[in-house]
Amino acid sequence: MRVFIILVGIPGSGKSTQIKRLGLEHLTLSPDELRIRNGALCGKSITPLADAMVWAQLRKMLCNRFKFGLTTIFDSTGLSSSVNEFAELAKAFRYRVLYVKFDKFSLEECVRNVRSREFNSDLPESVIFNFYTRMQNFTRQSNVCDSIESALKWENFYKISLDYDKIKVLPDLHGCYDTLAQFARAENWFKDESIGYVFLGDYIDRGNQNYEMVNFLCEFATKENVYFLCGNHDTRLFEWAFDINHTPPNSFKESIAEIETKCKKINELKKRLRSVSNKFRSYIWAEFKGEEYFFNHAGVEKMDTSLPDAYLLGVLTQGESENAYLDYVKIGNRWAKNHPNITQIFGHRNVFALSDFKINERCYCLECDIESGGKLAVLSLPERKLEFYDNLQSQLCEQTSRKSANLINEKRFEKQGIYSVNFSEAVFFNRLWTSQTIKARGLFRYINDDEIAGRSYDKFFNYEEFEGVPNLEDFKYPVKVWRKENGHLLLTFFNKFTKELEFATKSSVGKPMNDNAKALFSTEQIAIISEFCKAQNATCLWEVISKKDDKHPIVYDDEAVFLLNVVENVEQERLLDYKLADILGGAARGVLKDKALLSEISNLDELKSYVKDFFASWEIEYEGVVLEGANGVKLKLKGNFYQLKKMLRACSGGGFPKFSHSKELEKLALKAISLGLLPKWRELSVEQVANLRE
Predict the structure, then answer these.
(1) Dist. CA 527–CA 283, nearest whole Å
(2) pLDDT (tens digit per residue) in 294-328
(3) Sheet harboring 342-346: ordered strands across?
(4) Which end of the chain is more exposed for a tag (fewer CB within 10 A), N or C?
(5) Among positive and negative, which fits the CA dihedral 271, 73, 124, 55?
(6) What is the pTM of this model?
(7) pLDDT digits (tens, 9 = 90+) for 466-483
(8) Are 269 and 280 within 8 A, CB to CB?
(9) Contact between 282 and 348 (Cβ < 8 Å)
């Protein structure tokens, strides 16, 4: 087990005697034993002559043991500063540090025990008394066990109850972030706390989106219903984060090179990894709906306290063959024999690609070779049903620079201390949608630290816009139908650099369009929204209808600003549930309005019927609707009236759009042009379109 047990007690308090009684010498490091072996024994007295060498050796020995995840007992008084240093070292290797306190003997009894020793029996009584005094100041309450035996029990570590309706287990991901993000979006970024998510480890290497994966780990490691296990590839990541000397393989060197190319603040990233390192477990032993489960990365044949943790992580692989990976079926069958009432689920080594990842009723090897193009397989419990997701790993991520790949445009605004990030025309017209380009839409970062200053939605698409867009079967219910107005997008967020509320379009700040939008807000409203955005670390998204707008197809009689959503300023899209009155209270007046909820749909048949009726209608005078599922899936439906006017707008500018919407739309556009309506395309009304259709 990955546990470091520090014995705390004065000389003669029974620590070494207890170790021998339990037969645990093979797990124990003792400074006194090393002093003797380094020649510090003079007669029967142990001198401090070799102490510098001893403590250096202890550190090296501990590092070696920690790398292999060996249960380690440290037998000293536990009261020196060096012990505190070793405890911190253990934490860097994601160890749980436990203390066993030996305080049952009186001072007089401890002195008698010291005098009866074979070696060092002449330890001065003043030294023993000094340790006794320091022992009285040992007031630690947390992580203290009453005995070595209790510290070594499996059930004391990660034996938990998973109180969820469902658990979803994910395999090795190996730097394939796009594919993971597809699953996460379908799960609404794990917001449903009735579902638990267990990740089996190996998040980096081999794939080409390791930086994105590391950001994902840092962001979700503290989420209560998300459980990250650690794999052999991940141990290197944490050694790197803690600056522990190691000789990494080439795959990890390539991963670090990619991360350092994409990340402007490496030390900050390392700090984030260190802060969440204790969230990455070697295993989870859990009860779930009356069944017991044992989750780990590499698969073992038996739960054994003497088993090096390295076998759980895959640093070492349990098996008999020269290539131990091949023995996973034997390992699984032995597990079922040793633990007939516990189901083990692991990844790491499904080299024969079991069709259903099932070795037997009590063992699953969930490894789907995702880095080589395999589909993402997710095991859903308790029904033990497999879900499959297409592999979206993009070769575009091999580009070492966003700009050189011609996918992302950046604009710097030095006065405001921010820059905007938006996908390029090449992305839009060639549909080069990845996790990076979908997010690069109305995204603003600070120049000095690259943190998000403000952000819009991730890019989402029109119904049946192209193959790969979510379809109606992807929604979870209820599905909300929001009216989509036809203005321009406005972002308001608190700028920590200028200490002011920023008014931004998708790509710019400080432009006339931004100032025009700002003029629609009162001074009071701006002050309240500024404080709100600052407190929530969020961006308010608005749809602005302005009298100065003569480009949008839909014409409005009055100006208006519609609150669309509030988005948290984090890497993964998170929508916060606020209405206008929640933000502004009594100041929610003037042209500011909430977006309109038109309907809620409760099942697929009802949704299909709604979509059919929507596209059959020519009387919708606004742009269209946004369908938003309970799982966060979003789709846009654009009305026929809007699409026709948009076509005519393109023609009025000398273009000739590809009429891909429907034959009727194309026919009506050409008829309108032939009747001389093109110069006044924006004034075209629903009634006029009805006449054109006759």
Answers:
(1) 49
(2) 999 999 999 876 778 889 998 888 887 666 766 78
(3) 159-161, 283-288, 291-296, 342-346, 363-365, 358-360
(4) C
(5) negative
(6) 0.55
(7) 766 788 988 999 999 999
(8) no
(9) no
